[in-house]
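Reviewer comment 2.1 asked that we show a complete input and output for one of the modelled complexes. We chose the NDP case, as it is the one discussed in the main text.
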Amino acid sequence: MFKAILLNKKEDGSTDARLIEFDESQLPADGDVTVRVDYSTINFKDGLAITGKSPVVRKWPMIPGIDGAGEVIASSHPDWKAGDAFILNGWGVGETHMGCLAQRAKLKGDWLVPMPAGMTARNAMAIGTAGYTAMLCAMALEEQGVTKDGGEVLVTGASGGVGSVAIAILSAMGFRVVASTGKLNEADYLKALGAADVIDRAELSAPGKPLQKERWSAVVDSVGSHTLANALAQTRYGGAVAACGLAQGMDLPTSVAPFILRSVRLIGVDSVMAPMPRRREAWRRLAQLDAGKLDRITQQITLAQAIEKAPDILAGKVRGRLVVDVNA
Ligand code: NDP
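Response of the prediction step:
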């Protein structure tokens, strides 16, 4: 038996989330690696799963937790053996396959990334899917030829998980980063992460003109909706926008003007099904992140607190990242 959060669908369609003792024999039979989870996290998607606000969970009952880090206990997969340290992000874990907000999990060896040298399980989860997605966005912009000499880079949803790590990554790459936030009282936090300037997200979140004054050489957007539309409208000629999130909304009320008149490029970024070589490269680079900045981003909570904090992340109340010590 081990401790886990378990989600059940109630008769009225709502989600029941509780901390329980789970029987290891009930873990999915199709997993070929049994792991001890040391740390997990609460991402936006975990918030959706635990509260039932969105149909993230597609098999019931479900242990949530799209991220985990710890050590392999037993494996029939050729690449993994007992004692190996792993990171897991996505692949439907916590949605269709029992997840990592638990002390044990049975996962597929093909999904696991080896822990990069020098990285701890706690730091890996301080980064989590949010931070790994921020790195995928930075890599996408680099591949589009964006350079630090091209001008300012905008990060939206700046005080959130993706935003906080994106600021740390892009500033370390030498970019002048402008952070857009609804929490102007967190300006010192955002500047300590590397933001050169902080703007009020209200400047971006209302309907705007299809083309506006050119400002950004590139954008990392985790907000979507009008914010992404305005960011596109303010992107300079030939600039690139990496879109990965929908904290404001799933809609994109824009026009083709930025694309056909300014050659702006909109790049979609998905972390869940990203191919393994790209994941490994993202994690190799994430291992070089400033540990002090990671500490600044992170709050540590227990498994029981993970249930309480789930609504907060959806309400945009969480600063940075929530790391879950599954043994606390
Ligand atoms: P967080 O909740 O940590 O951060 C989101 C931030 O967005 C908030 O902190 C807030 O920042 C801002 N925000 C919240 N609500 C609104 C709103 N109504 N209007 C404008 N801004 C808002 O979430 P994450 O950073 O973990 O994830 C962000 C988004 O990225 C989510 O939609 C998530 O699903 C998506 N995502 C996608 C991935 C992918 O693979 N494509 C992977 C990971 C995340 P502030 O107060 O500073 O403005």
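The first strand starts at residue 2 and ends at 9. We note this here for comparison with the apo prediction described in Section 3.2.
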